[in-house]
Amino acid sequence: MSQGFLSSYAPILLHLVLAAALAAGLILVSWLVGERKANPSKHTPYECGMPPVGDAREPFAVKFYLVAMLFILFDVEAIFFIPWAVIYRDLKMAGFLEMFLYIVILLAGYVYLWKKGALDWSP
Asked: How far apart are the two ends of the chain, measured CA to CA in Å?
């Protein structure tokens, strides 16, 4: 390797070393200065100022996961609107019709899920 190649990466290496040293130093100072007095209130779980009720390992309903997956699915499909909006003027009417067809298919899927009850939270 040439000397120029190594010298161009020296600032990055220096930055990484300084960041690691700073992180380690902050953790060490926190450990040295911090109090270690144990009391029962420190070992209880904190839930928004309210005493915990029930088991924390209770499984979630499948509906929660289904709605979460549908949210991700529709969110990812909505990302395709961004590049279309950027080059909208270049696409002319053909691009508009293609995106209109895409929106119709997307809405058909949404209506299908709505009619099937996939978005209902009630039991």
From this structure: 66
Residue 41: both structure tokens together: 């209130």
Q: What is the pLDDT of residues 81-110, one digit of tens each?
A: 888 888 888 888 988 898 899 899 989 988
Domain ranges of the chain: 3-43, 62-116
CA distance 49 to 46: 6
Q: Which of 2-11, 26-35, 41-50 has the lowest mean pLDDT?
A: 41-50
How far is residue 53's CA from residue 45's CA, in Å, rounded to a whole number? Answer: 10
Q: 62-116 in CATH: which number?
A: 1.20.58.1610
Helix (H, G, I), strand (E, B) or coil at 102: helix
Res. 63 pLDDT band, cuts 50 70 90: confident
- Please give the C-alpha separations between residue 70 and each of 59, 92, 114, in angstroms, as whole numbers: 19, 32, 11
Identify the pLDDT of residue 88. 83
Query: What count of other Cβ atoms lies within 10 Å of the Cβ of residue 58?
Result: 7
- Widest Cα–Cα separation across the chain: 71
